[in-house]
Amino acid sequence: MRLFDFLKESSARYPSKEAVVCLSQRMDYAALDRYSDCFASGLAARGLGKGDRVALFLDNSCEYAVSYFAALKAGACVAALNTQMVPRELEFVLSDCAPKAIITEPRLKNIVDAARENIAGGLPEPIVVSQGEDFEKNFGLNGEALEAARSSVSENDLAVMIYTSGTTGRPKGVMLSHRNMCSNAESIVSYLKLSHDDSAAVVLPFFYSYGTSLLTTHIKAGGKLVIDNRFLYPNTVLDTMEREGVTGFSGVPSHFAILLRKSALRNYKLPKLRYVTQAGGAMSPSHIREFREILPKVEFFVMYGQTEAAARLSYLPPRFLESKLGSVGKAIPGVELSVVGENGKAAVPGEIGEIVARGDNIMLGYWKSPEETAKVLKDGFLYTGDLARTDDDGFIYIASRKSDMIKSGANRISPLEIEDAVCMMKEVLECAAVGVPDEIFGESIKLVVVLREGASVSEKDILIFCKKNLAAYKVPKTIVLAPALPKTASGKVKRAELR
Q: How much is the average pLDDT of 444-464?
């Protein structure tokens, strides 16, 4: 099975059924399939083929869905890029993946152009797609070339590359095959019992693995994706959910916190809402209970996973939510999960160990990073870096992360990315970023800065510098000037003390 087969099959079954809705724009399955065929023909005409990367620098939209499947049908790999990146960050990622095509939108073209300026050897001019793009008129259709491209793709070929921050501070491209993506989507469809009658409220970005899973699972099931990028105004999103009669909502803990604290959720009926899913970090048990009190008939799925696992590894069935509150459940269908102690053997219940996973969903590896790949892929298992314990019934409870990654909202942020940027200031001697508890986002960023002797820079000056050189979600919420950083005897920063 290849990812684009999901669309072909659903288009054949439900041609006139709506596939994607974004504000006033509505696209049925036949149109999504036809438009992506045309765009794929256009990409093939530009010389794209098997193994080439197509960078998508687009916000969620109908055009994103068309571009996503077009790249796959052309035999290429989708490199899904975070649209919050500033030119300096985008420059590194584009240099790394060397895309043969870059697809963007008018609002973001200047960022792409600025990033391309300093890349040796140059990159192709971006293909700019606008809302309501006429893919049939602008790209035409070469059925013979398209079929040749599609038939060349196997389930083991690279399909998607999603960049995630690594412990080195440099983003790493997680390589996911068609088999990885399809097996995970099929598993999720199974345990959520998704069908063509389902529709999902999409507030998670498609460039995020959790967001990608919404796209793939609902296209496979023949369901509808209801996109609304206005979560800064949660009541507006709730209006959309009510009007469209969505059956599912997915979010990270901060989404639920905002709905509970900054929206009129209690005033909405949402009669068709069947389930919600939560992943992307631990959610406060009190928030789970409060949400369920407001919508008692809605099934609440707690889930756990990693980009390296095509998104999902485990889930907690709603019937266990009370008795196993705080657990991320057990392995999803088709995945083998275990908690392994330092001796490499299975940990006994209650013992802290590392979660390891095996299944068809586990990534091929990190792009151009064999050493980093070897650290986490061992003997067919993914070593997640997450520490956990099991109870006597085999349910998994996350204890902590091995790394110091900051989990803020839907984002995973390497402290080194922030530290490297701030240390570009000539007044800064050294600095350290840590995640601290935040009621809305799970964690917010705290930055402790040590200035060079005689330097005179304020916290406000550093904040302004961060806003110019970092994506908005990486900008520290708190900046503290300190005479020194606490360190171990070996010189490592004691991040726990900074927290």
A: 94
Measured between alpha carbons, how far is 331 from 357 in angstroms, rounded to an integer? 9
- 88 burial (CB, 10 Å; 0-12 / 13-18 / 19+) is middle
Question: 35 with 89, same domain?
Answer: yes
What percent of the residues of the chain are helix, what percent strand, and what percent coil, each to the nearest 5? 35, 25, 40
Asked whether the predicted pLDDT for residue 489 surpasses 90, the reply is no
pTM of the model: 0.89
Tokens of 248: 């599912």
Query: Domain range holding 246?
Result: 3-387
Task: Give kind and range of the element (H or E) at residue 63.
Answer: helix 62-73
Other Cβ atoms less than 10 A from the Cβ of 109: the count is 15
Pair (354, 441) in one structural domain? no
pLDDT at 166: 54
| DSSP letter (8 states) at residue 473 | G
220: exposed, middle or buried (C-beta count within 10 Å: 0-12, 13-18, 19+)? buried
230 and 353 both lie in a single domain: yes
Percent with pLDDT over 70 in the chain: 98
Looking at the fold, whether 328 and 422 belong to one and the same domain comes out as: no
Helices (H), 159-278: 178-192, 209-221, 234-244, 253-261
Residue 254 has pLDDT above 90, yes or no: no
Note the pLDDT of residue 165. Answer: 67
Q: How far apart are CA 348 and CA 419, in angstroms?
A: 39
Mean pLDDT, residues 5-25 taken together: 98
What single-letter DSSP state applies at residue 368?
Answer: T
208, 292: one domain:
yes
Considering only residues 410 and 53, tell me which one the structure prediction assigns the higher pLDDT: 53
Half-sphere exposure of 472 (CA within 13 A, CB side): 5
Distance CA 205, CA 201 (A): 12
Distance CA 163, CA 178 (A): 17
222 and 308 part of one domain? yes
Q: Which DSSP helix (H) or strand (E) runs through 116?
A: helix 109-116
pLDDT of 171 reads: 87
What pLDDT shows up at residue 404? 78
